[in-house]
Amino acid sequence: MGKTTVRMGVDIGGTFTDVVLEVDEAQYSTKVLTTYTAPEDAIIDGLQQVCAKAGITPSDIGQIIHGTTLATNALIERRGARTALITTAGFRDVIEMRTESRFEQYDLNLTLPDPLLPRQQRYTITERIDARGQVLIELDAAELDRLVSQIEEAGYESVAIGLIHSYLNDAHERQVREALANRLPNVMISLSSEVSPQMREYERFNTVVANAYIKPLMKSYLGRLQGRLQQEGVDCAVFLMHSGGGIISIDSAAEFPVRLVESGPAGGAVFAAHIAARYGLDKVLSFDMGGTTAKICLIKDQTPKTSRVFEVARTYRFKKGSGMPISIPVIDMVEIGAGGGSLASVDSMRQIRVGPHSAGSEPGPACYGRGGDKPAVTDADLVLGKLDPDNFAGGSIQLQLDSSTQALQRVLGAPLDMDAQTAAYGLVEVVDENMANAARVHAVENGEDLTEYTMIAFGGAAPLHAARLCEKLGVDRLLVPPGAGVGSAIGFLRAPFSFEANRSQYMKLSQFESGVVSGLLQELENEATAFVRSCDEQAEIHAEFKAYMRYSGQGWEIPIALTSEQARQPDAATYQQLFEKDYHALFGRVVEGMDVEITVWAANATTPAHSVAPVQMAAGGDDAHSPGTRTVFDAARGELVEAAVVLRKDMQTGQRVLGPAVITEDETTIIVPLSRQGIRQPDGCIDLMPQTSSQRRSAS
């Protein structure tokens, strides 16, 4: 068997580690509980399982693509290396002062997140580069030597270097790195001019500190993973999914681990975009719900929306500005603490609250029988009949209904004077409304009407909740693709090799310099292409360009896509037209007579997207065979209903399932409420849409 025909995708989540093996056109997958102390153990366990299913040996694997929450978790849980920051004199407290904005204006007890590094781990040096990149104050060699001695005495593992305006001139940052490397060869060093060469020092300093903070951890993990894979006989290239939706080499990932912070969710968005392309859908709402979080992303024209700043570790889960800003290319999505393991409680107002804390895989929800004693979303789904206790995760985990009932009764039922089933109903309605509200807000912020969208649901918990979410949002169509339970891992196998390079260089359109712009974009294209070449020396690569633009005096920019011709032959009038078109689409008007500024430039080098064969749609035909029924709670009606149970693997193309029904498979369960019907499409997707009036009449 040729190695090029066998590829494996691995996604480490907060609760489960998903492993997908693709042998030619066939897929084999499994979910194993994440092993926090040694994440590579779960990967090896999953690898052995899928190889056994496929009848191959690990040595047959030709490529592995990996995404992980390890970087995110290390930042949230503050489990990084002992790290120092070196910055310009006078800017020591930038990461603590933040932007001075109050994300909750009227909260007198506002809790701001602590900076990643305390003040005693932040050092300064006398130097200064101005906003045009000119040196105002040279570095003093003697002072630099004394600073290196301080770093050496303190015993740091990693050092972040972030100097003012280094994105325009990185000479001083490189001098500091050279002095450190000469004396301290074992200390890891991160430069802000390499990690995030963009204006706004708070975001840039935070990003380089985050990179330095998790660099030793991620380098160690990736090294251990390679070693364990070699012990299993796996001798192939390992690549990492990055937060922007592409793949980079393991060496690049080890050098810039902050790029991995949203790698798992990014894989899910790529998976949804691939499904959207198969169905020719231009407006898709991607809904990814796993064990710890739910992620919602807008996909237009089969391309996930992207951003260049996002937040991790929010102290107020839904509040922008309450977290740690990371300034890197990222797929733009809203993340909610609403996974299968999210824990419920009753607050001081006697209201049910769910998340952001999660039971994870250790101890897991109460029904796992691993020591968890608080009710999680999975416990509520089990009590409401959505889950089969004997066939969860392919039967690998026996769920304990009594434990769920007791936890729900003790934590929610007793304080609120209700039985366990009513408590479970309240819990899932709170979770579903939280997710629906987050989707509404995200759509409004992007000027979109969700009723025009199709939802694509994946992740172990999403198909349990997606149809109810559609009812709340007024979304008619829902697609649940095959492999939905391990969607992000499949997405890794669909992602292109890509890397985005960006840099700040301020310019007004009234003072536009075509030669400077074309030269800068060419440099960025060369930088991004070099990263992609490190993954595949022979691949066809094309570049995409963006300019981030705003009216003079505005506080933030909008991204404007540029064609290759517009990047190589830039023209101020063309850029003005492009900006006004996108600005009008977002805000409904343009501002006449006001100058426009460009602050950040970006070039993304990428290999071509995987070719997609369009699906020939199947109309609903015969009813799918149902071997039995079970009682399930229908939230829209607020009552128990008798639901048909259908095995997904037994459904034939064109067969339909009328709600209420439960479509079961090893890695997830699809709930079809009374308001919906599901049709199996030729590619295996379950296509859910509202029942017709005649279907509802005949059912009644």
Concise structural overview:
The protein contains 18 helices and 35 strands.
Q: Give the helix level as a range of percent.
A: 25-40%
User: Rg, please?
Assistant: 26 Å
N→C terminal distance: 55 Å
SS field, number of helical segments: 18
Strand segment count: 35
Mass-distribution shape: globular
> What percentage of amino acids are in beta strands?
25-35%
Q: Mean pLDDT, as a whole number?
A: 89
Layout of strands and helices, then pairs:
Elements: E1 6-12, E2 16-23, E3 26-33, H1 39-54, E4 63-68, H2 70-76, E5 83-88, H3 94-97, E6 122-125, E7 128-129, E8 135-137, H4 141-154, E9 158-162, H5 171-183, E10 188-191, H6 192-195, H7 201-231, E11 237-241, E12 247-249, H8 250-255, H9 263-279, E13 283-289, E14 294-300, E15 303-304, E16 306-307, E17 310-312, E18 324-326, E19 330-331, E20 333-336, E21 342-346, E22 352-358, H10 377-383, H11 401-416, H12 420-445, E23 454-458, H13 462-473, E24 477-480, H14 487-494, E25 498-508, H15 514-533, E26 542-551, E27 558-562, H16 564-568, H17 572-587, E28 596-606, E29 628-634, E30 639-647, E31 656-658, E32 661-664, E33 669-672, E34 676-680, E35 686-690, H18 693-699
Parallel strand pairs: 1-4, 4-11, 5-6, 5-9, 9-10, 13-23, 23-24, 30-32
Antiparallel strand pairs: 1-2, 2-3, 7-8, 11-12, 13-14, 14-15, 14-20, 16-19, 17-18, 21-22, 24-35, 25-28, 26-27, 26-28, 29-30, 31-34, 32-33, 34-35
Helix pairs in contact: 1-7, 2-7, 4-5, 9-14, 10-11, 10-12, 11-12, 12-13
